[in-house]
Amino acid sequence: MSFFGMDCVRKKERELERKLRANDREYNLSFKYATNAIKTSKYNFFTFLPLNLFEQFQRIANAYFMFLLVLQVIPQISSLSWFTTVVPLVLVLSVTAAKDATDDINRHRSDNQVNNRKAEVLIDRKLRSEKWMNVQVGDIIKLENNQFVTADLLLLSSSEPLNLVYIETAELDGETNLKVKQALTVTGDLGDDIEKLADFNGEVRCEPPNNRLDRFTGTLTYAGQKYPLDNEKILLRGCTLRNTEWCFGLVLFGGPETKLMQNCGKSTFKRTSIDRLMNVLVLCIFGFLAIMYKMATKLPSLPSSHSGPYVIILNTVVPISLYVSVEIIRLGNSFYIDWDRKMYYARNDTPAEARTTTLNEELGQIKYVFSDKTGTLTQNIMTFNKCSINGKSYGEVYDYTGQRLEITEHTDTVDFSFNQLADPRFVFHDHALVEAVKLENPEVHAFFRLLALCHTVMAEEKKEGEIFYQAQSPDEGALVTAARNFGFVFRSRTPDSVSIMEMGKQCSYELLAILDFNNVRKRMSVIVRSPEGKLSLYCKDHLNEFAGEGLRTLVLAYKDLDEEYFNQWQQRHHEASTDLDDRESKLDQLYEEIEKDLLLLGATAIEDKLQDGVPQTIEQLSKADIKIWVLTGDKQETAENIGYSCNLLQEEMNEVFIVSGNSPEDVRQELRNARTSMKPDAVEDSVFLPERTLGKSVKVLTDEVVNGEYGLVINGHSLAYALEHSMELEFLRTACMCKAVICCRVTPLQKAQVVQLVKKYKQAVTLAIGDGANDVSMIKAAHIGVGISGQEGMQAVLSSDYSFAQFRFLQRLLLVHGRWSYLRMCKFLRYFFYKNFTFTFVHFWYAFFCGFSAQTVYDEWFITLYNLMYTALPVLGMSLFDQDVNDVWSFQHPQLYVPGQLNLYFSKKAFFKCALHSVYSSLVLFFIPYLAMCNTVRDDGKDVADYQSFALLTQTCLLFAVSIQLSFEMTYWTAVNTFFVLGSLAMYFAVTFTMYSNGMFLMLPSAFPFIGAARNSLNQPNVWLTILLTSILCVLPVVTYRFLLIQLCPTINDKVMFKVRQAKATPPPPTRRTRIRRTSSRRSGYAFSHAQGYGDLVTSGRFLRRPAVSRSSGFTHIGRTTTGFSPMGRSAGYSPTGRLQNAKVPDVEVTSLQMYRTIKDPAL
Fold first, then answer.
1. What is the largest CA-CA distance in the chain?
2. Which of 214, 251, 294, 438 has its CA 20 to 30 A from that of 89?
3. Domain of 640: which CATH number?
4. What does pTM read for this prediction?
5. Domain carrying residue 1021
6. Where do the DSSP E strands lie in 163-312?
7. Residue 800: which of 234, 204, 372 has the closest Cα?
8. Residue positions in the annotated binding site?
């Protein structure tokens, strides 16, 4: 770990190759490899105070106040007590330190929870229970079913046939589909024999620690032989062992050196753009005070000792109460997020949570949203929505008049009680399909027979009737489960057979060949021999028919094969599969040859269910000019289809560019071609704006306007080239010209690199949202990180700044809470600077009359209480309760969000406007009372033009002026706001009369010298006339300016607020959008999401499970009992977590497959 605790790994010198020996700790310790302990916390007991103070003093205001404190402790130059600065400074530092400590304690608890997990480690020829943190490189450990993988391991042996293990990698890549790993035969023979494992002394040489999840190279030397190692033999930390009783592994990398931690990204100290702007403004103010100090020292009549106190007097320009108030406002707005019932997800009992209190206003300035797909946009649940068999479409529901009905949760579902093996969680609404099955329609039976046979799903049946499907892709699981419920139940498989139950009859098909899926063919087929001896090929291929509805679709076809032809083809297939040269192309040719002249059976439509409200949320965010980029580990076809179904990509777009080059030159050319298509006259120059921040010059890529709307889809290997230093600007410039961007097959580190690229060259605020450990680096890299508490654990939530349960809550977080927080903070800062600049500039004008001495124009008690009591609560009330329009109007007009992206509410320009307004107000507040008091007498003829009376009048005019100004700033009055404003004025008079009373003077004469000033001055009519005049003159320019602005150049806020006033009541909620689907001709609806190679794995026997228990047919026509029945199969609502889900079917038009020939075969 680094000293700051922010680096995942520290290396004394770069490791070029890893060497280790099994069961030899002494040998492995000589290389000083990292242990298996992890640390994500930032501080420890000794480093907390110095590091936290170092971080806090990066806020220039804190350093500024420390400088003033140093001046105040010097009696010769200070007229104010040192505790007036040290107390609030210590308070601010303490509150922030306490908050940071709380956050870090939570990180320590999380680390301790992980580090103290127990693992069985082979030590001294015995299995011992050890904490994860004590596991070392070279140890052999035992894992059991459903346990997390302790470290990056070399798989040695397992309980499964042929040393297979099944793992879930959701924490790494977001995919909950099971993956298969297989050990070397030589280590698999060790089994679970502790003696053999203890004698194992194999030596491993492999690559050094890195972040590549998809690659591993190394060798194992054992018993004089050298064996190659690849990624298929490695179990990575963060995976979960599934459906495997036990396995043994050799630790290769531990703790911070594991690939999971290498992808974790750095924890950064996040500050808002307003914080950074405040640093610049404080520097400007500090420079201004320095100039005034220089001016004061050059005055010939002013002793040099007076200039120091004068500078201290002017420190109220930026009082420390400003930062106390800012933290209170942020805390209050964070509570609003926590308390928002409209962001509460009742199904999981999950409220929204603001995990940080320092970034709320940044939520109102988001320009780029980077989102994961699986589990964030989608539910990771596949539902069997509809199908077409023999030209007839099933899945819709119609009334007696033939009108299509909308399917809801209350729509009647099909009764599958005739099938005792049906999955009760399967939901289907079209009764016509089950009737066709019962009537033994031959085409329908052939359709579901194909679904039960043509797949790579594994079945496990530990108890009679309890079937659990393990699918390498959730869409395959949904299709096999659909066949199961309609009477064609897949029960088990061997390398050369598939057993299914056909309408209660047990059938075993001989499996002769699997024509495996690959990215070029995009189909798979099986060749089987039926129990009657008939030879058939069943095929699943992609189809665009339902793709326009956002559904992943397959066309199903078959043909009978001639025995003699198949024998010849099988011989050629064997020769091609054993050929070392050009094996893949030869196999593809053979597959193409036999997959011809097929007879169409029908098509299926599987929906990768979006989370509720995702399309509407993306549409709303797009209207708010927020650009959404999807960064997913899923493959291109799947991500592209989801992009269309969630309205990210749209048919109305001029073009969607696909970047898939396999070389830097190809990628560069594709990016340039896309940019030329969008903007033919694009100029290479003038795409940067110079931007300087605190003396640092940075490049800012300008937004380029294009005619039309475009999308960009880029895959992982192309993105790797695009992110290289020489090409990153080409990629960013092209991507930023598009309305939507989808990056496919990206690693966790690439997600973070994309976010950092946008942060580096775009003057925009970024937000990253995800739900898995593979999103952590992206969440940490963005300005704002949002975690979704979904099906992939809590890693994303623990690393996030905000969390909730559903993607749809993002629009409320940004368009309501974010916009309100930003608006309130900007109003607060404008008003706070106004009231304090005005307060301080009155001192400046008075200095010309007092020789720039340390004498103050106000009573010292007024100076102390001005920010603490008299003006604190009104501005806090405005900053906690104010809103220009309510949440309904915010959703109806998402364009209200745009001013925040452009920093229109508070910027350097707004700050200097505020300063000019303050100069004017201070002139009025000083000279009007001065002229009114000059040579003035009371009603009784006594002189009233004394210092104390003038001070009282000036401070009273000031308080009335800033209170009226606050009233103009406020647009949403509540009882609390009204009480704070009027109560503060009442408090001022109560405190003033008390402080200036005879009693207080008699108690402490030196502390309360203004005896009788209040009652002697405030009973004079001319004093109140002066207060009225100054108040009117202070607010008159504001009223005039705002009137002219609204009339001549109204903002979007002005227009919407005018509509609100016209409505005179809360408008009705917006009408529900009709979900419109369009048929796409530009993308594939291909439903396979699994990887190449599973067919070979099935037929080789390496995929075998244990023999299933004996079974009965499981069918009855009387009805089925569910006593003692706990089905484990996954329904058409196929969820990798096995949770109960109800399928919702969207409105779609009835379709047909007229482009295919439909042939009835009486032999079916």
1. 130
2. 294
3. 3.40.50.1000
4. 0.75
5. 273-332+817-1064
6. 164-168, 178-182, 203-206, 218-222, 225-229, 234-235, 240-242, 246-253
7. 372
8. 372-374, 476, 517, 540, 552, 632-634, 745, 751, 771, 774-775
